[in-house]
Amino acid sequence: MKVKMNTKNKLVSFVLLATFLFLVATVSAYDDPQPINGVEISSLTVDGIDIMDSEVSVIAGEMITLKVYFTANYDDTDVTFEAEIEGDKTDSQARTEVFDIESGKSYRKSLDIEVPFDLKDDKSNDATINIEIDGKDNKTKTSFMLRVQRPSYNAVIKSVSVSQTIDAGEIVPVDIVLKNVGYNDLEDLYVTVTIPALGVEKTGYFGDLVAIEGCNDKCDDDEVDTISGRLYIEIPYEIDAGVYSLEVEVKNDDTTSNVVKQITINNDLSDKVIVSNSRETVAENEEAEYSILLVNPTNKLLVYRIVVESTGDLKTDLSDSVVAVPAGSSKMITVTASSDTTGEYEFNVDVLAGEQIVETVTFNTKVEGDGIASSSSPVVILTVVLAIIFVVLLVVLIILITRKPEKKEEFGESYY
């Protein structure tokens, strides 16, 4: 009886052991990579790291390179290698050009895809990457997990607010909003606003930004991940109207970010030098007179220096060679030119502010002989006409004065 019981127990134990081994073999078989629809992916790398064997971490906002190695167990055409990274708000997709595969052959395909930036309140988080090898007759799908991290240091310029149309000479406010979307805190941030074409630049200190506002109990109330500030830039008066690039740069020892905006600048007072007449005709040794109006549209005193470049036999003179024009006002100067030799002369007058030439004005003087200017000069014509009238009137007056009055005949009365 004991022999039968031992035999029975051994049989039960053998059956249990055989069943366990079968289950283990079955589970092991399912653990092995299995081809899906006949395509067996042997390797999938992210920037050179095999995602099938490792937990891969990538940086939000950056481009990554995916490479897939697979063996085809069927023939197919119009095949593409596709990838999708699922974000909380946005997804990112990419695919290769179409290609053909043949059964029993191995292939390698690669593509670049951008990692979505959805890390609003986290320094890092998990994301799903879907892989698909899609052909005309067959499709292979699989998914993996990616760890997405913020860049180490990253200050983003969220907005730049500035008037789109500006007047020359205006002081313009520029409002900037910054956010720290990096993995680490940012210290000592400086913001610079420039208009390179005008030589305009202004820099301001914006302070520190933590990686995540209210990160833990150690954070102070003034530790924020977003900050706004205002800088003022002054637009020069003497510039040309047009469209200019306004650049905003945020910078510290660890990172630099830039934004460019287009602004339109108007200038209704671009002319600082106004000339009413630039051509005169005079007689020999007679002075031609020209007027120059110097305008100061700025809010500060301007000092102009005037230099005349005379030529040949032409003599020139200035009423003032140095002129101080108060802010928002103007002053008139006179330029004269004369010559004892007939001919047509041209000369330049340079108006300088400091060492910079504000404007160069060209004048023309025509000198004619016979002691009288050309009939083309209205002033000369008027002078001649008035002289003739004066002579006629003078003759008439002399005649009237010199003419003797007639004697009247005297009559007397007779008394008888």
Structural overview:
Helix content is 13%, strand content 50%. Strand 14 and strand 15 form a beta hairpin. The longest helix is centred in the N-terminal third of the chain and has 30 residues, at 2-31. Mean pLDDT is 82; it is low at 1-8, 14-36, 372-376 and 407-416. It is elongated. The protein starts with a helix and ends in a 14-residue tail after the last helix. Strands 3, 5, 6, 7, 9 and 10 form a six-stranded mixed β-sheet that branches. The chain has helices at residues 2-31, 378-402; strands spanning 39-46, 49-50, 57-59, 63-72, 76-86, 91-95, 99-101, 106-114, 124-134, 139-149, 155-161, 165-167, 171-180, 186-195, 200-209, 226-234, 242-251, 256-266, 273-275, 279-283, 288-296, 302-309, 315-318, 322-325, 329-338, 343-353, 356-368. With 416 residues, the chain is mostly beta strands. The chain folds into three domains: 39-149, Immunoglobulins (Immunoglobulin-like, Sandwich), CATH 2.60.40; 155-266, Sandwich (Immunoglobulin-like), CATH 2.60.40.10; 273-368, Immunoglobulin-like.
| Secondary-structure content class | mainly beta
User: What's the CATH H-level homologous superfamily of the largest domain?
Assistant: Immunoglobulins
CATH architectural grouping of the largest domain: Sandwich
Kindly report the CATH topology of the largest domain.
Immunoglobulin-like
What is the β-strand count? 27
Annotation field: number of helices: 2
The total number of structural domains is 3
Output the helix-strand order. HEEEEEEEEEEEEEEEEEEEEEEEEEEEH
Q: How much is the radius of gyration in Å?
A: 47 Å
Can you identify the CATH class of the largest domain?
Mainly Beta
- Beta-strand portion reads over 45%
Indicate the percent of residues in helices: 10-25%
Indicate the overall shape.
elongated
Main β-sheet, in a few words? 6 strands, mixed
Low-confidence stretches are 1-8, 14-36, 372-376, 407-416
